Amino acid sequence: MMISKLRMHKSDETGDCLASPDISKAQCKYTPKEPVILHVDMDAFFASVEQKERPWLVGKPVVVGGDPQKRHGVVAAASYAAREYGIKAGMPLFTARRLCPHAIFLIGRHQDKYEYISSRLVRIFYQFTPQVEPYSIDEAFLDITSCEKLFGPPLQLAMKLKEKIKKQLGLSCSVGIAPNKLLAKLASSLNKPDGLTFIPKDKVKEILSPLEVAKLCGIGDKTAKILSSLGIHTLGELGSYPVEVLKRKFGKNGEWLHLVANGIDHSPVISQAPPERSMGHERTLPQDISEPEQISSVLLALCGMVARRLRAKRFVGGTITLRVRYSDFVSLTRSETIARPTNSEHVILKVAQKLALGVESGIRRVRLLGVSVSHLTKDGQSQQTSLPFVEYIEKRKKVYSVMDRIRDKFGEGSIRWAGAASFI
Questions:
Q1: What is the predicted pLDDT for the residue at 177?
Q2: Which of 8-17, 108-117, 255-264, 293-302 has the lowest mean pLDDT?
Q3: 38 - beta bridge partners?
Q4: Domain map (residue ranges) of the chain
Q5: Label partner for 178 (CA 20 to 30 A): which of 35, 44, 217, 383?
């Protein structure tokens, strides 16, 4: 089967991709006018985020989900070490515990943390193409048909994308490249984890034919059982099965089954303007710090920058996220959702300082700090405050407005709150 897990070496002057030795040069040829679709799927996303924050979990069977003591909880994600015991997403937690009693079970309480990482991931996608369709919190389709002049051939672009995700997020992903969305999603699933799989147009039938029908997105267990009763087990058998018989058995889905079994999919990548899902700033510090006063000073400067961006675009946000990287390169991300959305640096700072206490930022030496605000809404759509100090709040808003205008005219460092770090 002409599929391999690729590792890019270089690209020659003709634009043809030179990949691993078992992939021929002819396989890597492409026609820029033909659709080129990428599917990016993060590897064991929730579990990988937890392992990134706590490196001592790397290589261990980690299960993220609800409370394993409750019978109704399910697995949200399982590390690849846990999957070796048969644990998979959607499985009841009590079943997972039976399969691997020594697994490390984590309650996925920090959904905001995962959404924050996901928003950073989407911003990376938009650095390569405006045609991005997020498919879930940890996967997306990218149409890169017209991107070769900027980033080179598709395989080269995919390697750059994987490297940027690894460098900026510390996470691995699997990428599939194909002429359409259906095949790109299939390709990304064939060489997990950390895979890069290319399905050329002229090899589609050869690649699909031996695969089990359930390998294809959209064919679930129930449909697979019905097909099995008809003697259909592989996509090759489904693709050559009489369409009229499939229509009688499955109705209008019968024709769809025939098309997808032959690798035919005309659905476009449905893109939209890059979403304003969050706004944030982070800085690697010129030297490691550990004193609470130093940390608060940096946080105040960062919160001021974030709040200024929010006000400039007339947004308020309901969730504040703090990111910390220590001197040993261990990173932690913590979030808190507040009752009333805000674009005030003082409100954002208060939450950020509270989150900092929970991640030992006053004990261990800190190398990087970041603050972001998510769950954004337009300022006029936010809930009005019911506090009695309306006059005080309005005065503070006027101060913010004056400071923003000064920065617009003279630069970010022209005015700052007393105590804010000057090197930010």
A1: 96
A2: 8-17
A3: 142, 177
A4: 30-199, 206-261, 278-414
A5: 44
Span between the terminal Cα atoms of the chain, in Å: 53
Environment class of 140 (CB within 10 Å of its CB; exposed 0-12, middle 13-18, buried 19+): buried
268: burial class by Cβ within 10 Å (0-12, 13-18, 19+)? middle
**Percentage of the chain exceeding pLDDT 70:** 77
Length, in residues, of the chain: 424
Point out which residues pair with 234 in neighbouring strands: 212
**pLDDT tens digits for range 261-312:** 999 999 999 886 665 678 888 888 888 888 888 888 899 989 998 998 898 8
Question: Per the omega criterion (within 30 degrees of 0), is the bond before 193 cis?
Answer: yes
Return the pLDDT at 420: 56
Q: Do strands 366-378 and 315-326 pair parallel, antiparallel, or not at all (unpaired)?
A: antiparallel
- The radius of gyration of the chain from alpha carbons, rounded to an integer in Å, stands at 25
Residue 133 pairs with which residues in a beta bridge?
141
Please state whether beta strands 62-65 and 37-42 pair in parallel, antiparallel, or not at all (unpaired): unpaired
State the pairing for strand pair 173-178/37-42: antiparallel
Q: What is the mean pLDDT of residues 374-379?
A: 84
pLDDT at 386: 42
**Tokens coding 223:** 């449909």
CA–CA separation, 237 vs 325, rounded Å? Answer: 53
Domain 278-414 fold is Dna Ligase; domain 1 (3.30.1490)
Angle (nearest 5°) at CA 89 between 84 and 92: 95
Handedness of CA 57, 60, 62, 68 (dihedral sign): negative
Does the reported pTM lie above 0.70? no
Helical spans, DSSP H, in 152-202: 154-169, 181-189
CA atoms of 38 and 419, how far apart (whole Å): 47
Topology (CATH) of 30-199: Alpha-Beta Plaits (3.30.70)
Catalogue the active-site residues.
Answer: 139
What is the spatial distance between Cα 34 and Cα 31, in angstroms, rounded to a whole number?
A: 6
The C-alpha atoms of residue 132 and residue 139 are separated, in whole angstroms, by 11
